[in-house]
Specification:
By secondary structure, the protein is of the alpha/beta class. It is built from twelve helices and 15 strands.
Length: 370
């Protein structure tokens, strides 16, 4: 069988930056969720995306949870959440005993539709927070979303788990809302094996998140807890990996863009194929190259053909309003997210792919049109 081509796997630096930072952690014996790497990673990531403060956490999901808690979301509160996303965006709303209302996407961005958001505010005037997602590295159209949130005095949380390095009108995603979150899961553009980051310009809220994330231990000589806490802090070892990965982020973005352009050149002539939307105001990180199909070839045809050749691909995220666990919650939209899901495919976008690998993928897909 041919060598496996992965969708998006971890890619350590050729220079060995990660090993250097990990060695420092071992040499200093700072292995716990404290140490120079944690502080360094927080500062370097915040500097990169243009925010003042950051908290390194165990996952992107933990970061969304802490963002909701920091925003004061609690029992019975309504949170508007993008419908077309991974479940980890919505699950923390339930952790806080709040009520999600799912907001449709549009074809122009694949992300939250400002028109659907406006309708949602008309139906639900009392809302605690809005979670917008930058799907597959594509920025949402943030200006109208920000304006609506300001108009209704609602906290905006950016789920930038997939969009580290993406810019909207020259500014990094994750830096527009009151809170932004990033994920460093193994398949993301840079990884810490598992981990996440919460960023904000609000120093007090970030300090509070650090407190909650270390089991809410009070400043007392004995072990005292006046609030419920969480074991959410990133370890100094994993933060070392993150610091090394951050040094090659721009290289990874360049390769992801190259992969997108390669596919576009080789596959755009096939009838019924459309590539994910790239807008003038958006410079995406191209985390995954995604397509939609409108002809005789269906997404499953492509995924099965690739799988037979030991090539990984996957469907577009199944919208939240279609998920059994969220079936009882309201959805505002016209079925756009459902259409993108039903007709979409994520193509392998691994930064270790060679031109030969890319030609192999394109060859499998091209043969389906013969």
């Amino acid at each position: 069988m041919s060598e496996k081509i992965w969708l998006s796997s971890p890619h350590m630096s050729d220079e060995g930056y990660e090993k250097e930072f990990i060695k420092e952690a071992f040499d200093s014996n700072w292995i716990a969720p404290l140490g120079a790497n944690v502080t360094g990673f927080e500062n370097e990531l915040a500097d990169k995306v243009g925010t003042k403060h950051a908290a390194a956490l165990s996952s992107g999901t933990a970061a969304i949870h802490m963002a909701l808690k920091a925003a004061g979301v609690g029992k019975g509160d309504i949170v508007f959440c993008q419908d077309l996303t991974f479940a980890a965006t919505a699950n923390p709303i339930i952790y806080q005993n709040a009520t999600p209302v799912f907001i449709d996407s549009n074809f122009e961005t694949w992300n939250m539709d400002p028109k659907a958001l406006e309708k949602a505010f008309e139906k639900y005037p009392k809302v605690k927070a809005v979670i917008v997602v930058h799907l597959y590295g594509l920025s949402a159209d943030l200006d109208p979303i920000i304006n609506l949130c300001k108009k209704h005095n609602v906290t905006l949380i950016e789920d930038a788990a997939e969009s580290l390095g993406t810019t909207y009108k020259g500014k990094y995603t994750g830096s527009f809302g009151e809170f932004g979150i990033f994920s460093f899961n193994g398949n993301k553009i840079i990884t810490t094996s598992g981990g996440g980051m919460l960023v904000s310009n609000n120093k007090e809220r970030i300090e509070k998140v650090r407190f909650w994330s270390t089991q809410s231990r009070d400043k007392a000589r004995h072990y005292q807890h006046s609030e419920i806490g969480y074991n959410y802090r990133m370890s100094n070892v994993l933060a070392g990996i993150g610091r090394g990965q951050l040094k090659v982020l721009d290289q990874r973005i360049a390769k992801k863009r190259y992969i997108f352009e390669f596919y576009k050149k080789e596959l755009s002539n096939l009838e019924g194929i459309n590539f994910m939307p790239i807008n003038d105001w958006n410079e995406p990180n191209h985390w995954l190259t995604c397509i939609t199909l409108s002809g005789k070839v269906k997404p499953l045809d492509i995924m099965e053909a690739l799988d037979k050749e030991n090539i990984e691909s996957r469907p577009i995220w199944k919208p939240m309003h279609m998920q059994p666990v969220f079936a009882k919650y309201d959805y505002i939209g016209e079925g756009i997210s459902e259409k993108i899901f039903e007709n979409g495919v994520c193509l392998p976008s691994d930064t270790k792919m060679t031109d030969e690998d890319l030609r192999r993928v394109c060859g499998v897909i091209n043969r389906l049109w013969l």
